[in-house]
Design goal:
The structure is a single chain. It contains 1 helix and 2 strands. It starts with 5 loop residues before the first helix and ends in a 20-residue tail after the last strand. It is extended, with a radius of gyration of 15 Å. It is an alpha+beta fold.
């Protein structure tokens, strides 16, 4: 699960409202970075994007069970 702080929500909202292109959402990406660990990225997803996929991928060792 990803939790955004109120300040982070405000910053994302500011970028969305300031965009000249309609925004469909926020894309959060995590990829392997080799020896330096993971690489994280965030981009705005444009409403007109032809790639209309949404998926969640969580490996079993990353899931916290209480």
């Amino acid at each position: 699960m990803i939790t955004l702080t109120p300040n982070a929500i405000s910053a994302v909202d500011k970028f969305i409202k300031g965009s000249a292109t309609p925004v469909a959402g926020l894309r959060i990406a995590i990829s392997g970075g080799g020896c330096s660990g993971f690489q994280y990225g965030m981009t705005l997803e444009w409403a007109g994007n032809q790639q209309k996929q949404s998926f969640n991928c969580i490996d079993p060792t990353s899931v916290h069970r209480s």
